[in-house]
Structures are given as structure tokens and as C-alpha cells.
């Protein structure tokens, strides 16, 4: 399993649910969660072969910022 962490600008619970649903629909095998309490509004994605660029593209296309953290 690989875990990737992304910084986002998702602030609202409704936005979190929307972004999670879209990513989950595209990548059903990924485990996805947000930490909206964190100052970076963390998106955490866990999976076997993560496609980081695709995750970032999907979130960006929804109108949100998504930056992979090292």
C-alpha cells in the first residue's frame, strides 16, 4: 500500500464529500479521506498503484487546488 498526502483548499464538509465521491468513482480501489482540521486541508489517498497526477487533475478540474506534499 502507498499513501500520498495532498494539500487542498477544500474547506466545507459538502465540498469534501463531493471531491471524495468523484475520486472514489474514478478510482474505486483507493481509500480516501480528508483532514479539514489541518491547516493544509489534507487529502490522504491510500492504494496499491496511486496515480498522483490523475488525482491532482481530477481535483483541479473540480475547481479546487491540489498539491502533492513530500
TrEMBL record:
Lineage: superkingdom: Bacteria
Protein name: Methyltransferase type 11
Taxonomy of the source species: Bacteria, Pseudomonadati, Bacteroidota, Flavobacteriia, Flavobacteriales
Species per Swiss-Prot/TrEMBL record: Flavobacterium defluvii
Amino acid at each position: 500500500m502507498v499513501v500520498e498526502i495532498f494539500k487542498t483548499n477544500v474547506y466545507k464538509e459538502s465540498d469534501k464529500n463531493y471531491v471524495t465521491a468523484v475520486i472514489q468513482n474514478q478510482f474505486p480501489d483507493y481509500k480516501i479521506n480528508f483532514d479539514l482540521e489541518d491547516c493544509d486541508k489534507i487529502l490522504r489517498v491510500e492504494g496499491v498503484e496511486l496515480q498522483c497526477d490523475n488525482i491532482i487533475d481530477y481535483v483541479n478540474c473540480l475547481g479546487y487546488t491540489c498539491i502533492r506534499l513530500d
